[in-house]
Specification:
169 residues, mainly beta, Jelly Rolls, 44% strand, globular
Length: 169
């Protein structure tokens, strides 16, 4: 079995643009609302939803129930062919993620690892391959914006004869 080592690089808008959006206040369009008592950071991600067959955008919480530690080994990746999937942490801790371009046949050597700065969320565009959500902290909670509705919206692939090892720089 081959082991492909992925080193997580800092998550930036430029480096991540092929895969989706970085959700952050830095550089975002913003303006005051509510008589100046609140600053709105506007239009932070391109939420994509296939609504042809009755799909709709939904908001959920995901909560980690099993811890994962680094170096982290895995060979299962997934994608959502009917909509984007946005993750917004409810705390200020970094998140490690792995992504790959929306192709029919994902390859280990074409995956990229990123780590957030602790204040960023991220939005995987439709069809982008990614690893399942992990965290070292049980109970860690994320706000998720994605699609609900008829049809399969989660494809999973096990990378045959290849284990990925995710490490922090």
């Amino acid at each position: 079995m081959n082991i492909t080592k992925l080193v997580a690089k800092p998550l930036t808008k430029d480096a991540f643009s092929e895969f989706g959006d970085v959700i952050e206040k830095d550089g975002a369009k913003h303006f005051p609302i509510n008589e100046g008592a609140v600053e709105r950071f506007h239009d932070l991600a391109d939420i994509q939803v296939d609504s042809v067959d009755g799909g709709k955008a939904i908001v959920s919480f995901f909560q980690v129930t099993t811890p994962s530690f680094f170096p982290y080994q895995f060979n299962l990746i997934e994608r959502h062919p009917k909509g984007s999937q946005a993750f917004i942490p409810t705390d200020d801790k970094p998140v490690v993620l792995v992504v790959g371009a929306p192709t029919d046949t994902p390859q280990a050597e074409n995956l990229h690892a990123f780590i957030t700065n602790g204040k960023q969320g991220f939005n995987f565009h439709t069809g982008v391959w990614h690893m399942p959500l992990i965290s070292e902290d049980v109970g860690r909670t994320f706000v998720i914006i994605d699609r609900s509705g008829p049809g399969n919206n989660c494809d999973e692939v096990t990378l045959e004869n290849n284990m990925l090892e995710l490490v922090l720089a």
